[in-house]
Amino acid sequence: MRLLDSRIQRSVDRDIFWRAREFFLEEGALKRSEHGLRVGSRDGYYFDIDYLLNDPIKCQLISDIYIKLIRNLARKKRIDLLAFIEKASGGTIGVLRLAGNISIATKIPNAVIRPKKDIFFERVKIPFFARGEMGIKRGLGGLSAVIVTDHCTTGREALIAQDILCTLGAEVSNVISYTVRSDKFSKDEYNKRGVTLTSAYSLPPSNEMPKSLLEIGSIAVNY
């Protein structure tokens, strides 16, 4: 098998990202909603990745984008674990639906982070650790984990997941997200913690969202 020239490969990768950009133009992917954020402010819309994952073609393309972002990161650092967030709202499961497919393609084990669980040792669903007579055994010690989520508005939810993983001994310095709201994202908090966010797309601020979601034209590709 002949390997693609690196320039051709980058062009192929960019084509995948640009094709998926059209998903944001579809009615239902971006939804109006007056909702509160963890930082106390309010926002006017949200991105619904579940809406796109019901279609097998879109599902495969979104999965491919995550796989490429993870593989690009894996060329620079060791990744022992992909930690997928179970959404705190309970109303959607987001990128967790793709966990098995992404794990198979990247050959990296996956875990589910469940911040809403009252009992701490139930917040990470993975057989790498167990509860013993002396309490929680830190079976994640020395493992390098990457948090995978669908969207970061402020990014606080991913930082909560980082706290959970680090308490169990894992090392977490990267978050991968399909979309991000760069106007709301907590850059200072991420810098302070030494955490880097990698995303495929940036979404516009609420005040730049047109009346018709089909008219949106300010999506930025971060690739």
SSE blueprint:
Elements: H1 6-21, E1 30-36, E2 42-47, H2 49-53, H3 56-74, E3 81-85, H4 99-106, E4 110-113, E5 124-125, E6 131-132, E7 135-136, E8 144-152, H5 156-167, E9 171-180, H6 187-193, E10 196-202, E11 220-221
Parallel strand pairs: 3-4, 3-8, 8-9, 9-10
Antiparallel strand pairs: 1-2, 4-5, 6-7, 10-11
Helix pairs in contact: 1-3, 3-4
Describe the structure.
Helices cover about 30% and strands about 25% of the residues. The protein is an alpha/beta fold. The chain has a single domain, classed as 3-Layer(aba) Sandwich (Rossmann fold). It is globular, with a radius of gyration of 18 Å. The protein starts with 5 loop residues before the first helix and ends with a strand.
**What is the helix/strand order?**
HEEHHEHEEEEEHEHEE
Quote the beta fraction.
Answer: 25-35%
C-alpha termini separation: 27 Å
CATH class category: Alpha Beta
Query: In the CATH classification, which architecture applies?
Result: 3-Layer(aba) Sandwich
